[in-house]
Amino acid sequence: DLGSDVEIDAEIDEEIAEDHLLGGLLIDSTDDIEVPERLVDQVIGQEHARDVVMKAAKQRRHVMMIGSPGTGKSMLAKAMSELLPKEELQDVLVYHNPDDGNNPKVRTVPAGKGEQIVEAHKEEARKRNQMRSFLMWIIIAVVLGYALLVANNVLLGILAAGIIYLAFRYGSRGSDSMIPNLLVNNADEKSAPFEDATGAHAGALLGDVRHDPFQSGGMETPSHDRVEAGAIHKANKGVLFIDEINTLDIRSQQKLMTAIQEGEFSITGQSERSSGAMVQTEPVPTDFIMIAAGNLDAMENMHPALRSRIKGYGYEVYMDDTIDDTPEMRRKYARFVAQEVAKDGRLPSFDGEAIEEVILEARRRAGRKGHLTLELRNLGGLVRVSGDIARSQDADLVTREHVLEAKGRSRSIEQQLADDYIERRKDYELQVADGYETGRVNGLAVMGEDSGIMLPVMAEVTPSQGPGQVIATGQLQEMAEEAVQNVSAIIKKFSDEDITEKDIHIQFVQTGGSGVDGDSASITVATAVISALEDVGVDQSLAMTGSLSVRGDVLPVGGVTHKIEAAAKSGCTRVIIPKANEQDVMIEDEYKEMVEIIPVSHISEVLDIALEGEAEKDSLVDRLKSITGSALEKTGEG
Ligand code: ADP
Fold it and tell me: Is residue 568 part of a domain?
C-alpha cells in the first residue's frame, strides 16, 4: 500500500460516492482531511511516474520526466530525496595544500563530522593565538623594560615594541589558513539532499572559485577558502533535479555527463580571467541521482550522450495531463486542497462547497469528458487566490463564493487579453451578433491555451481574369487555401459553377493578437464562401468551429469549451460544433443559458442552420443543404 488514500472516519458508500462531487467524503472543511507526511504520498495521479521514482530510488537510477509544466515533476524529485537513505550523507571539507596552494585538498567525512572538524581547527587556532599573544606581550614587556630601565631610551622601546607587535600579527595570518573550508554541510539535514539546478549557470551547477582581489602581499584569501560547491556537489548522495534540461548549454551538459560517469568532479574557477581559474581542487564527490525534466522537445535538444546515459542506466517516464474522474480521485483532489492549504500555512480552511468548486474547475480544465486536470500547479494557484480573497475579508473559512471570485481573477494572461479584446470590440460594435449578412461568418479560435476568441471571416467571390486565386490575409493563407479547396471539391459535384475559376478573397477580421489556430476555422471559411457565391445571408447570432474534410464531414477540433464561452461572451446565441467534440464541452453554468450548442457532423447541416431562409428549389444551396455524407459519396462515385 502506498498510503495515499484519504483518511476519513466515516465509511464511504460507493453508490452515493459515484455522483457525489467529493466522492462520498463527509466533511465540514479541509481540517477533517489528513495530509500524508511523506511527499510521495501527497502526489496525486501520476501512478506510473510515482512507481518509477520509488523503484529508481531503491536502485539509484537516473530518471527522465517528460510532461507539461506543473504536473508534479519537481515534487516527485523532491519526494525521491526523502526516500533515499540519510545514513550515507557526507560532509566535504577543502584544505589548504602546503605543496601547491592552487590545488586544495578535498576530504569527505560522515555527515555532522565536518562542523566538528572545523570547530576543532578553530579552537586550536584560538589557543595558538592566545599562546602567541601571551608570548608577544611578555617579549614586549621585556624589551620595553630593557629599553626604559637599562638603555634609558623611550623611543627605541616604543619602536621595538611596535615591530614585535606587527611581526606577531602578520605571522598569525598564516595559521588561519590551516582552518578547512566546509564545502558541503549535511549536519542538519533531515533527508538526503534535493538540489534544483533548473536554469543554473555554470558556476552554480559545477562549482566555482571566487576571485581574489588581493592576490599577494599577505592580504590574500587562501585559495581553498574561496572554493564554492556547485549543485552537483551539494546533491551528493541525494537528488539533482534539472528542469528544461535542453536549455542547459552543451558544455555544461558535457561536464554534467563527466560528473555522472566519474562520480566526482574537481572545482575550478568558471570565469576565465579571474584568479579563481588558476585554482583546481582535488575531485569532489558527485554521487547523485539525476532527475532531468522537460517537455517533448526537451529531448530533441538534449545532449545525445546524456540522453542515452539516462536511457541506458535509468528510466524515462511521461507525466499525465489528466486522470479519470472517479470518486476515489475526487477524494484525492479534496485532499489536494487540504495539502495546498497546509503547504501555504496562512490560508483559511476550505469548506465543502469551496472544495467542490475547485473539483469542478479541475473537471473543466481537463478539457476532456470524464477527466480531471493534473496541471495541479495552476489549480493550486486557484486555491491560493481563493484563500487570499477569504483572508482579505477576514473570513474563517473559504467558501464557494471566494472560489468563484478567484476564478475571475486567476485568468491566464491570454484569457485576460481575449476578454479585454472582446470588451473593446463590443465598444466599437465591430462584433455583429444579430441579423443576416452575406459572406460573413462568426468563426471561433483559441488564443494561448485556455481562452477562446470570436474571429469573424469574410469572403468575397469575384470573376477571375486568369486562373482563380485564393487571397487571404496574414498567416492564415495556407489554411484558407485548404478550406477553399475542400469546399470547391464539394461544390463541383453539385453545380456547374467552378470556383477554381474565380478569385476568392478571404479576410479574417483582425484579432488583437496572433497565434490563432489553423484548420478549426475551415467550416467557417467554407460557409462564408458558399454564402458569398450564392449571395445568401448568414445568421450572425450564430458562431461556429469545425474542421472540414473533402467529403464534407465536419471533423473535431480543439478548445471547444473556450470557444463556446467566447461566443457567449460576444453575444451569440447559437454555436455549431463538431459532433465528435460534443463530449468535450464543459462550459461554466453561467454560459449554459446564454447559448444553444448545436453538434453537427456534415457541412450540409451547417448550411441548413447558418444560411438565411429557404433556399430556392434546385439551387446549389438547396442541393448542398439536402445532402449527407453518404449521398455525397454516392454522387462522387456515380
Ligand atoms: P513541475 O515540476 O512538473 O513543473 P511541480 O512539481 O513544481 O511541477 O508542481 C508545483 C506544485 O503543484 C507542487 O508543489 C504541488 O503543490 C502541486 N502539484 C503539481 N503536481 C502535483 C501532483 N501530481 N500531486 C499533487 N500536487 C501537485
Answer: yes
Residue nearest to atom 8 of ligand 1 (CA): 70
Amino acid letter for position 612: E
Active-site choice (191, 349, 410, 520): 520
Q: DSSP for 141-159?
A: HHHHHIIIIII--HHHHHH
- Least confident among 489-493, 597-601, 624-628: 624-628
CATH code assigned at 483: 3.30.230.10
User: Which residues neighbour 117 within 8 Å (Cβ) at sequence distance 6 or greater?
Assistant: 93, 109, 180, 182
**Residue bearing the CA closest to ligand 1, atom 19:** 72
Nearest ligand 1 atom, CA 42? 25
Decide which of 320, 341, 372 is a domain's last residue. 320
Ligand 1 proximity of 377 Cβ (cutoff 6 Å): yes
In this structure, of 145-154, 180-189, 414-423, 483-492, the range with the lowest mean pLDDT score is 414-423
What is the DSSP track for 537-582?
A: EEETTEEE--EE-TT-BEEP-S-HHHHHHHHHHTT-SEEEEEGGGG
b vs e for 340-360, b when ≥16 Cβ sit within 10 Å of the residue's Cβ? bbeeeeebbbbbbebbbbbbb
DSSP secondary structure of 392-427: HTT-SEE-HHHHHHHHHHT--HHHHHHHHHHHHHHH
Three-class SS of residue 201?
Answer: coil
Indicate if 520 belongs to the active site: yes
Supply the pLDDT for residue 386: 95
pLDDT band for position 512 (50/70/90)? very low
Q: Ligand 1 centre from 555 Cα, in Å? A: 34
CA 383–ligand 1 middle distance (angstroms): 13
**Position in ligand 1 atom list of the atom nearest CA 65:** 3
Between the CA of 194 and the centroid of ligand 1 the distance, in Å, is 15
Q: Please indicate, yes or no, whether residues 386 and 482 belong to a single structural domain of this protein.
A: no
Residues whose CB is less than 8 angstroms from the CB of residue 314 and which lie 6 or more positions away in sequence, other chains included: 56, 61, 62, 63, 64
The reply to whether 4 belongs to the active site is no
Q: Which atom of ligand 1 is nearest to the CA of 43?
A: 24
Amino acid sitting at position 627: I
Q: Is the pLDDT of residue 279 over 60?
A: yes
Measure 374 CA to ligand 1 centroid, in angstroms: 9
Q: What are phi and psi of 595, to 5 degrees?
A: -130, 150
Radius of gyration for the alpha carbons in the chain, expressed in angstroms and rounded = 36
Host domain of residue 521: 431-637
Query: Which cell is 190 given?
Result: 533531515
**C-alpha 375 – ligand 1 centre gap (Å):** 8
Clarify whether residues 550 and 600 are in a common domain.
yes
**Section 469-497 average pLDDT:** 73
Q: Which residue, by CA, sits nearest to atom 21 of ligand 1? A: 72
Residue 403 belongs to a domain with what CATH number?
1.10.8.60
- Tally of domains within the chain: 4
